[in-house]
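Sample intake sheet
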Amino acid sequence: MLTGKQKRFLRAEAHHLKPIFQVGKIGVNDNMIEQIIDVLEKRELIKVSVLQNCLEDKATVADKLVQGADAELVQIIGNNIILYKESVENKQIELP
């Protein structure tokens, strides 16, 4: 679990990131989760954009991504979900 201080730090780190994935009409699928796991291993911190035509609400999408990728939800802001997962091989972010 992330502390409030760690979440604030990660929000600041994620501010300049562009969304890498987009969740559209079909929602979250296994292939997307596998790709997100791979990218989280490389980057640790990513943004996922939820498109207007997505049939599920942002909280449901975020929950599925967190469960599927075993990641931490940093924040849902607007239509973007910020996810963090500590990397095993490529540790780059030092949490406070």
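Comment: The longest helix spans residues 30-43. The chain has a mean pLDDT of 95.
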